[in-house]
Amino acid sequence: KPPPTLYQQLGGEAGVSAIVEDFAYRVADDPQLVGFFANTNIDHLVASLEQQFCAVSDGPCVYQGPPMDKVHQYMGIRETDFNRLVGKLQAALLAQGVPAAARNQLLKRLAAMHDDVMRRQDG
Ligand code: HEM
Description:
mainly alpha; Globin-like; 7 helices; about 60% helix
């Protein structure tokens, strides 16, 4: 029997959906972060994040949204904002009962996008 994929360890479609929802509520509750999303269609964002998390965890999805540097360009995101957002995801993963190894794997794969997210933050 093959080892479970990261996607399976996250709980598959239902697990990823619960993680993203939990994460979205935590971001919405945070005064340092919520302002970034003032003009965002949250339903679209949640669907796109579910697709991205599914794809990045070797699930049966292909991320079809725009590239990370374009999505986040000129938002004025600082390192402190980035780290805070990652902390929200960490908390959501914990709250959803995702085991430590899977938590760390997902965070590592998303952290690899740091430079793309932060590339165009001036102007
Ligand atoms: C590794 C870190 C991050 C990843 C993987 C990520 C991923 C994503 C994805 C997949 C989308 C949806 C793109 C779309 O389909 O239109 C998105 C949108 C967005 N992200 Fe991030 N993000 C990250 C970090 C951040 C940070 C640090 C902030 C701000 C503090 C942020 C703010 C936003 C906002 C405001 C949108 C919505 C843009 C819009 O309204 O069109 N993101 N992000």
